[in-house]
Specification:
The complex is a heterodimer of chains A (about 250) and B (about 220). Chain A has 10 helices and 12 strands. Chain A is of the alpha/beta class and about 250 residues long. An 8-stranded parallel beta barrel of chain A has the order 1-4-5-6-7-10-11-12, surrounded by 7 helices. In chain A, α2 links the parallel β4 (about 45-50) and β5 (about 75-80). The longest helix of chain A is centred in the N-terminal third of the chain and has 17 residues, at about 55-70. Chain B has a single domain (about 1-215), classed as Rossmann fold (3-Layer(aba) Sandwich). Helix content of chain B is about 20%, strand content about 25%. Chain B has 7 helices and 13 strands. Chain B has helices at about 15-20, 30-35, 50-60, 60-65, 75-80, 105-110, 205-215; strands at about 1-5, 25-30, 40-45, 70-75, 85, 115, 125-130, 140-145, 160-165, 165-170, 175-180, 185-190, 195. In chain B, β1, α1 (about 15-20) and β2 (about 25-30) form a beta-alpha-beta unit. Chain B is globular. Classes of the chains: A alpha/beta (about 250), B alpha/beta (about 220). Chains A and B meet through α2, α3 and α5 of A and α1, β8, β9 and α7 of B.
């Protein structure tokens, strides 16, 4: 059986890994490549790098970074953040990225998923979906959660699969940053709706949250950042805990 | 010198980087003479089998590859092209297999016309995962069993390697490793000097690097 995946996520701005702390601003937490090497050695199954650079210069730095990651890291990695065209995706593929994720751009122009997937294969395209629960329904949000759309979450989930995405990365805005656990019920519903793999993001605060996610078979992988960056949980310790509790995990 | 076969299928950078980490010299090439004079050959591959076969043919490599007499390793689609046929054909590049044809009833798809003829070094066919309830693409780390040949020297049964694919080679007498995703499939094949892995050794951490090093040291 294919193992459940543990995926650290690194936000990169102007070439440095950063993390927001209680909305007070971003703090640098380290060199993205060194952190990736360390996570891979601790047993991370994949890595996700998101470019949140604000400048053109920063975006150029990110492209160089992708090559450095591919040169130095021997596990798969996804890159995302601001990918709007097939050409950008192609550039990242040539730089060594295993997958790219599209988020806001896909909501604005769904054909971007099909155009990248038909050229480079579905396995290369991750549909990152952020959604918020309000007034009795789940709505897709874009631009890092700042814009709420009219698009229903479950409708969009079905749609990205039809368009050719090879994986879904779902973040619940309601759960993100709370540390109270993943949006298990919604993830379970999404997982049953589509046949492509699903990665859960947002809400993990303790090892038991991962155990609940996987023992209920709500997702194929789990993504977290602060938990790992600030050493609250080590990947090694987390994976051993999950394995001891019967989850199919690679040690 | 190892020849990495370049036939226009995208990401060769990861494989090249993995060989560099193994301190091995390589050349990325589509030249017949360079491929035939290499000490060993690696044929990577992403995308769909149909399109990849077409790219091989365009460069005359469908004639060259079967003539290779040194160790040759096909990775993922690179291995599938060494099989007898692939069901992944009718559609444009979409290795998830969700092509219009795959949405038709199975009887319609399995007609001879929609199969792509491959190089037939291995007699195995390449089929689409179809067990109920499984996720496609098969993406992530899965376990290997029934390991044979020096390719798996130092690798224990149960080791995890990284896979990403929607089509798989059937098992048969040339199977040298199996894995399971709804059904059992060949995770690796070997016949004479030809080897193939469905998993990506260049993306499979320390275990993957061991497989690459084992391949590099195979002497015929």
């Amino acid at each position: 059986m294919v193992s459940k995946r543990i995926i650290p996520c690194l936000d990169v701005r102007e070439g440095k890994t950063v993390k927001g702390i209680n909305f007070e601003g971003l703090r640098e937490v380290g060199d993205p490549v060194e952190m990736g090497i360390r996570y891979a050695a601790q047993g991370a199954d994949e890595l996700v790098y998101l470019d949140i650079s604000a400048t053109t210069e920063g975006r150029g730095t990110f492209m160089e970074l992708v090559s450095r990651i591919a040169k130095n890291i021997n596990i798969p990695f996804t890159v995302g953040g601001g990918i709007r065209t097939k050409d950008q995706a192609a550039e990242l593929l040539l730089a060594g990225a295993d997958k790219i994720s599209v988020n806001s751009a896909a909501v604005e122009n769904p054909d971007i998923i099909t155009s990248i997937a038909s050229k480079y294969g579905s396995q290369f395209v991750v549909a990152a979906i952020d959604a918020v629960y309000a007034d009795g329904s789940w709505r897709v949000v874009t631009h890092s959660g700042t814009k709420t759309t009219e698009l229903g979450l479950f409708e969009w989930v079905k749609k990205v699969e039809e368009l050719g995405a090879g994986e879904i990365l779902f973040t619940s805005v309601n759960h993100d940053g709370t540390g109270k656990g993943f949006a298990c019920d919604e993830l379970k519903a999404i997982s049953e709706l589509v046949s492509i793999p699903l990665i859960a993001s947002g809400g993990a605060g303790k090892k038991e949250d991962f155990l609940e996610l996987f023992s209920r078979d709500c997702a194929d992988g789990a993504l977290a950042s602060s938990l790992f960056h600030f050493g609250k949980i080590s990947i090694y310790e987390l994976k051993n805990f999950l394995k001891t509790n019967g989850v199919d995990i690679r040690i | 010198m190892i020849a990495i076969v370049d036939y226009g299928t995208g990401n060769l950078f990861s494989l090249a980087s993995a060989l560099e980490r193994c301190n091995t010299e390589y050349r990325i090439t589509s030249s017949a003479s360079e491929i035939l004079s290499a000490s060993s050959v690696i044929m990577p591959g992403v995308g769909a089998a149909g399109e990849a076969m077409e790219e091989l043919r365009k460069r005359g490599l469908d004639i060259v590859i079967p003539q290779v007499r040194v160790p040759l390793l096909g990775i993922c689609i690179g291995m599938q092209l060494l099989c007898s046929y692939s069901e992944e054909g009718a559609a444009p590049a979409d290795s998830s297999g969700r092509s219009p044809a795959s949405l038709l009833p199975k009887a319609t798809v399995s007609s001879q016309m929609d199969k792509i003829k491959c190089l037939s070094i291995f007699p195995n066919g390449v089929k689409k995962f179809a067990s109920p309830g499984i996720k496609i693409p098969h993406m992530g780390w899965n376990t290997l069993y029934s390991l044979k040949t020096p390719l798996f020297e130092g690798i224990e049964g149960g080791e995890h390697l990284y896979f990403v694919h929607s089509y798989f080679p059937e098992t048969g007498k040339f199977t040298i490793a199996t894995s399971f995703h709804g059904e059992e499939f060949s995770a690796a094949l070997n016949r004479d000097n030809f080897y193939g892995t469905q998993f990506h050794p260049e993306k499979s951490g320390a275990a993957g690097e061991r497989v690459l090093k084992n391949f590099i040291s195979i002497k015929l």
